[in-house]
Amino acid sequence: MINNLKISIPIEEAEVNDVGNYFELLKLPGEFLLIQQEDSQFYFLCTNDCPIEKICLLFDWYIVSRDRFNGSLLIGAGLAGEDHAEGEVYRLKDEQTLSLWRDILHFTFMSDFVRQFFPYTNHFKGKLQVDNALCFYIHDYHPVSHQKEISTYQKKVSNLVFRFKEGKQSALVAKLFSLAILRMPFFKELENPVLIPIPAATRERNIQRFARFNYILAKRLKIEDGFKAIWIKEDREQMKGQTHRDKIFNLDFNTRYIKGKNVLLVDDIFTTGDSFVQMKRKLIELGARSVIGLFFGKTILK
Questions:
Q1: Closest among 274, 280, 278 to 293, alpha carbons compared
Q2: Is the pLDDT of residue 99 over 80?
Q3: Which residues contact 110 (CB under 8 A, 6 or more apart)?
Q4: 16 lies in a domain?
Q5: Which of 117-121, 178-182, 241-245 is the most confident on average?
Q6: Are 240 and 163 in a shared domain?
Q7: Which segments within the chain are labelled E, that is strand?
Q8: What range does the domain containing 62 cover?
Q9: CB within 8 Å of 127: residues ≥ 6 apart
Q10: Contact 115, 108 (CB under 8 A)
Q11: Quick check: is 119 in a domain?
């Protein structure tokens, strides 16, 4: 029986979305409410005995935050898949509890009182043409050191950029990138795509920042992981924001990952574009069919 499980989605979406996984929820204990929003975000409230991670795993959803609400309830937020259905899924004992839980989630995540620490934006905001190559970015990035007053949202972007550079939040940033890339009409038409990061200045930073991220993102996109396409022979000084300097002199390239491939060249921040141009030209010289730049943010200095 499914009397205690409710699915609330628009009629027009019910016909085009596979709701088969929802019936797997019947086998799991506990009470829960999941509210799915536009732009792939979802919020949840559940009892302690509810295996919320298993529920999200059924749909390949990613939990961004999960906190204790009180002694008996957990609250959190996350990112659904590209083809999620906007609406609600819940199993609760009565309408009064449902109304109360809805109010809690709306107040916590959807009102002016927002407690998110990171931005969940997962579509490309801007597009550039750099050295005859397309480049896409998700956020305007305002460096804290250059800007005394920045908005709350801009601070969230900076928070996530700093954590990513430290090698943290790799799974979250990979999820955001994957949703943005999968929305690009031409992505599914790319033949032999490979994901290659623009290396950091040192081996340690490069592994810390990109190894896990590149693996997760390539796996989500179902394309080749090209982290090993470029090897740092020796560490060099940081040259972020500098132009007219050779930024690839210390790199070795493995053409197995490059020749005949359409390269998705990914990095955290686009500033001058100098690193991208040097990398792009080298990859084309080594036989890449095309190079597309993908960036989490584009630096705004004013």
A1: 280
A2: yes
A3: 37, 43
A4: yes
A5: 178-182
A6: yes
A7: 6-8, 32-36, 41-47, 62-68, 73-79, 87-91, 126-130, 133-141, 193-197, 224-225, 230-232, 251-253, 262-270, 290-299
A8: 6-110
A9: 134, 135, 136
A10: yes
A11: no
- Whole-angstrom distance, CA of residue 59 vs CA of residue 208: 29
Task: Identify the pLDDT of residue 16.
Answer: 42
Segment 138-160 shows an average pLDDT of: 79
- Domain for residue 77, yes or no? yes
Q: What is the mean pLDDT of residues 136-156?
A: 79
Coil vs helix vs strand at 216: helix
Same structural domain, 56 and 149: no
Please tell me whether residues 260 and 136 are part of one structural domain. yes
Any domain includes 10: yes
Of the pLDDT bands very low, low, confident and very high (cuts 50, 70, 90), residue 222 is very high
Confidence label for 14 from pLDDT (cuts 50, 70 and 90): very low
| Residue 13 pLDDT > 70 | no
Span 237-260, average pLDDT: 86
Evaluate whether 271 touches 241 at the Cβ level (below 8 Å): yes
Q: How many domains does the chain have?
A: 2
Residue where one domain finishes, among candidates 82, 110, 138: 110
Encoded tokens for 288: 């890449």
Given a cut of 60, is residue 9 above it in pLDDT?
A: no
Cβ 200 vs Cβ 239: under 8 Å: no
Could you tell me if 144 and 287 lie in one domain?
A: yes
Instruction: Compute the CA torsion angle 69, 156, 85, 88 (nearest 10 deg).
Output: 20
Clarify whether residues 41 and 154 are in a common domain.
Answer: no
Domain identity same for 69 and 138: no
Confirm if 102 and 113 have CB atoms less than 8 A apart: no
Give 175-189 pLDDT, tens digit per residue.
Answer: 999 999 999 988 989
What is the per-residue pLDDT for 202? 93
- The string of DSSP codes covering 168-184 is -SHHHHHHHHHHHHHT-
Q: Work out the angle between the directed axes of helices 212-221 and 170-182 (0-180°, nearest 10).
A: 30
Mean pLDDT of the chain: 84
Backbone angles phi, psi at 90, to 5 degrees: -155, 155
